[in-house]
Amino acid sequence: LAKTTQPISMDSYEGQEVNITCSHNNIATNDYITWYQQFPSQGPRFIIQGYKTKVTNEVASLFIPADRKSSTLSLPRVSLSDTAVYYCLVAFQTGANNLFFGTGTRLTVIP
Amino acid sequence: KAGVTQTPRYLIKTRGQQVTLSCSPISGHRSVSWYQQTPGQGLQFLFEYFSETQRNKGNFPGRFSGRQFSNSRSEMNVSTLELGDSALYLCASSLALMSGEITYEQYFGPGTRLTVT
Hints:
By secondary structure, chain A is mainly β.
């Protein structure tokens, strides 16, 4: 059974870069990692997805090292509105029951 | 464009009863997935439907079932409710254009909070 773990919580000051790591079994080269943000009383919101070493969009970057045993969400210059819980989702491309969310990281951005 | 809607938003049921939850995806989205969220187990994948067919399934007992209609709306059903089924049930839709297309860019609804007493 795949186990996907994240740090329980992180604090950061406004304007800093934040890196949140997701640890998982070593994934195959075509297995996807997706990150979501969740505010209280809302469903998760998509941030970024990918399976390659580095993916970047307008709000975040996703890094997957060569051993593929972890992945990192990088948020540049966080603001107070980024205070939320962040989840990684590991999607294995083979086998059934192949989607596993991480345990979630509560990010608190401090003024 | 309207987001994913789920009904009802809150529900209280008694052990042994059954419940049906409804989800309307974003217009044009053909893939609908269901997730269970609890404080103890976190977010867990239930199943995914695409074009009225269950394409993927998580590790939940047969009491949990779902279906998708031709308009992509989806329902999930839980029979013989147990106290442990109390949770937030989330529906998510995605724009999978072809049956084999892979995307995990999902749009979630606000969820249905089910309480089993």
